[in-house]
Amino acid sequence: MCACANRSFCPPTDRQRAKALGDICQLNDDISRAITIGIDECFLPFPIPNVGDWVTVHTEQGQTVQEFERTVRTVPHSSYRTIYVQPIGSFDHPRAPSLETICEFSRPFFPGCQIEILPRIDFTDFSKHGQNGMRINSYTKQPQYLTSFIIGHLKKMKRRERKHDRQELFCIGVTMADIYPGSNWNFVYGLASIDDGIGIYSFSRLDPLFPNAEMAGPCTDEVRILILKRSISVFVHEVIHLFGVEHCIYYLCMMNGTETEEEMDGQPLYLCPICLRKMYSAIGKEKKHFNVIQMYTKILELCKSLHFKDESAWYENRLNLLNTTANN
Question: Which segments of the protein form a coiled coil according to its record (predicted)?
Fold first, then answer.
């Protein structure tokens, strides 16, 4: 996605991972067990990267739990906890992922929050308020839209159309159109403006047939599952960024940065102990809603219903381990 290089990255040591997790003495039993029991059996350390992987292209220092808790960030509370999903452009294609399914899978990751899909808007609406930031990509020959223009439009919509809405925590724009963050970038999967609580994410390149997906027919079951899994991973990953969580370099984790499809497909649909603890802190006073066993149980049910076999096996194994130790 960009052309800089960082060849000095070394995966963290056990000691660095322990430091990143921090002191757990004041945590309740549920989250304490989830981030300490069976870690070596269930979580793989961050792998040695290949040339071209995210951490060899982008500088990542890692974010400890203590650093996360010191950041200024948006924290949900009882009257301020709705995550709005704003579809932009058409999703009326047999290969487009289901927004309803993506939102249903995402809900367990954000205990105490609501996720609501807003009525669809078009890119033509943007031109009413000036430029739409559109260009033709030199490689795909297809339209791309500049992320800053989309985020700016979503900010205007918030001020103009939802200015009396005291429920809004974040607004997430989603589109099947390709997007880019600047003239020196080829594309980006998504981008979050943490200060504004607004993000924009594209599912266009998640189809293996991109940029020719529009000309293709319906997916096979295998490809449908792949596109849906990628879409869920991108969506949940980027919403977690809006809570202030940075990329993970400690374990193989949903919050790892990804530069390639190979990295994306190797990324798990679960949070490592360090990122799970960050999300526990991110919920703020709504921690009463944060129950890891309930979260994992719901995600396991969804994995089974969507035929995510590897993910089902992981969540089932993790739940068995946590429940067994709880009963001993």
Answer: none
More confident residue, 224 or 159: 224
244-47-31 Cα angle (round to 5): 45
Q: Which residues of 189-202 are buried (b: 16+ CB within 10 A; e: fewer)?
A: bbbbbbebbbbbbb
Domains in the chain with CATH codes = 19-69+248-318 (no CATH), 74-243 (3.40.390.10)
Q: How confident is the model at residue 3 (pLDDT cuts 50, 70, 90)?
A: very low
Nearest by Cα to 46 from 279, 263, 292: 263
Rounded-to-integer distance, Cα 129 and Cα 124, Å: 10
- The pLDDT tens digits of the residues spanning 267-285 come to 999 999 999 999 999 987 6
Nearest alpha-carbon partner for 169 in 296, 284, 63, 253: 284
Write the CA distances from 134 to 102, 153, 174, 181, integer angstroms: 27, 14, 16, 11
